[in-house]
Amino acid sequence: VPEKVNYKARIKTLLKEKNAVLIAHYYTDPDIQALAEETGGYVSDSLDMARFGRDNPATTLVVAGVRFMGETAKILTPNKQVLMPELEATCSLDVGCPIESFSEFCDQHPDRTVVVYANTSAAVKARADWVVTSSIALEIVDHLDSQGKKIIWGPDRHLGDYIQRKTNADMLMWQGDCIVHDEFKASSLRDMKAIYPDAAILVHPESPESVVKLADAVGSTSQLIKAAQTLPNKTLIVATDTGIFYKMQQACPDKEFLAAPTSGDGATCRSCAHCPWMAMNGLKAVYNALNDATGHEIYVDEKVAQGALVSLDRMMNFAA
Ligand code: 13P
Ligand code: SF4
């Protein structure tokens, strides 16, 4: 469609003119992911997006994902301009963990180390001792547990439960969830597995325990792509946002990927397994952000950013 071609061409020109780079999450539209790859940008999970943005020489980062990803980029590189196609693109975990009540919860347990998922506001990160993403959460909690630390975990209860089952750490949980992953249904997944007995099941740990229990591999978005490559199965049932199919298919051209069911009757509701906030990152929105930064630029309060940098840096150094 000519309009799409136009946006792509205009974005490419603007990226060069503004010394900007496009960094996209695996859950964004294939159009956006392809454009990031074509233009020397990057497509990855939330930890690697942060790393790439920090280390790339571009002076402007266009972060196609959800708000916390843009905020993380800004906190790590305050001297760079950070643009987002859509500033309203939030995350149910972030929304469900307001700083005031989370801070009160932490105040009630001053003996505990506060570990928060990257899917939170800058203020919540500033209140925390550690930030983690799903690709490194298990190792960091295991490390803290080995030092005898008791933990406050927030906000994703499913990821927290998964880590607790794996590490046996003493974790007090905030009760948030991801509206996308919370929808996967174990009973329908079992029915689907009966239809495809040779398929392997890949699950993001933001999914409920009953779904995680059926998994052949559990992990962050990039870990699931690796699992798709390593597992011998030709068919894979995937319980995470369907945006990941673009990269999975690219990594494994000979394999077949099926979306895990999100409704009780076994039907796969594609739109249910796609984050509505990630879906806001269209080509037009990327173009708009580059064309006029007004209403697209991320700012983080300096004091909050300084606090959040401490807990973010702990994760980045641990991951290094
Ligand atoms: P990853 O860190 O695995 O990319 O997950 C981010 C996210 O928002 C998952 O829903
Ligand atoms: Fe947040 Fe879930 Fe969307 Fe990820 S998929 S950004 S956790 S709402």
Automatic annotation (TrEMBL):
Binding of iminosuccinate, residues? 25, 46, 117-119, 134, 204-206, 221
Cytoplasm found in the keyword field: yes
Biological or metabolic pathway of the protein: Cofactor biosynthesis; NAD(+) biosynthesis; quinolinate from iminoaspartate: step 1/1
Give the E.C. number(s).
Answer: 2.5.1.72
Q: Which InterPro entries match?
A: NadA, NadA_sf, Quinolinate_synth_A_type1
What keywords sit in the KW lines? 4Fe-4S, Cytoplasm, Iron, Iron-sulfur, Metal-binding, Pyridine nucleotide biosynthesis, Transferase
The UniProt record gives the binding positions of [4Fe-4S] cluster as 91, 178, 275
Which Gene3D superfamilies is this protein grouped with? Answer: NadA-like (3.40.50.10800)
Q: Which cofactor does it need?
A: [4Fe-4S] cluster
Catalyzed reactions per annotation: iminosuccinate + dihydroxyacetone phosphate = quinolinate + phosphate + 2 H2O + H(+)
The record describes how the cofactor is bound as: Binds 1 [4Fe-4S] cluster per subunit.
Role noted for this protein: Catalyzes the condensation of iminoaspartate with dihydroxyacetone phosphate to form quinolinate.
Family according to the record: Belongs to the quinolinate synthase family. Type 1 subfamily.
Protein name per UniProt: Quinolinate synthase
